[in-house]
Amino acid sequence: MKICIDCDDAAVNLKKVLFDHLKSKGIDIVDLDYSASKKGAMYPEIGYHLAKKIQDGTYDRGISICGTGLGMAMIANKVEGVYAGVCHDVFSAERLRKSNDAQVITMGERVIGPELAKTIIDAWLISDFQGGGSTPKVDQMRELENKSFHSEI
């Protein structure tokens, strides 16, 4: 599994903690560091850039961090075929994958501490979509998404 991570200026410390944590576990993770190539970049374009890398298959999953995680989730969900959610607890992180098949997790450095963030990311990474009763719901979500992106005017 190939994973990418990025953040805005409000989450530099948490990004480093999570990047180092996952690297120490031998996980294939890349820091996109969009802000290094575009000074003054704000969370919408940083989150969009990460989501596009998920959409085109460059990475399987992404971790997107800002002050609250809310803005990063909102912009990632604007990219067709990409599903993201804010998670600040382990149960939600597991359900994000197991029930919703989301490829992007977002979180906020101003909301949670580094140790909890590591635990959340670990739970999210070992979780896979379970199908079952969630399958028709995820299928319907994809159908509605398709209508939204490709509706006839």
Automatic annotation (TrEMBL):
Keyword field contains Metal-binding: no
Name this polypeptide is given: RpiB/LacA/LacB family sugar-phosphate isomerase
InterPro entries, A to Z: RpiB_LacA_LacB, RpiB_LacA_LacB_sf, SPI_LacAB/RpiB
Pfam families, alphabetized: LacAB_rpiB
Recorded superkingdom: Bacteria
One GO BP annotation of this record: carbohydrate metabolic process
Classification via PANTHER family: RIBOSE 5-PHOSPHATE ISOMERASE (PTHR43732:SF1), RIBOSE 5-PHOSPHATE ISOMERASE-RELATED (PTHR43732)
Isomerase is among the record's keywords: yes
Segment forming the signal sequence: none
SUPFAM superfamilies: Ribose/Galactose isomerase RpiB/AlsB
Keywords for this protein: Isomerase
Family, similarity comment: Belongs to the LacAB/RpiB family.
Native organism taxonomy: Bacteria, Pseudomonadati, Bacteroidota, Flavobacteriia, Flavobacteriales
MF GO annotations: intramolecular oxidoreductase activity, interconverting aldoses and ketoses
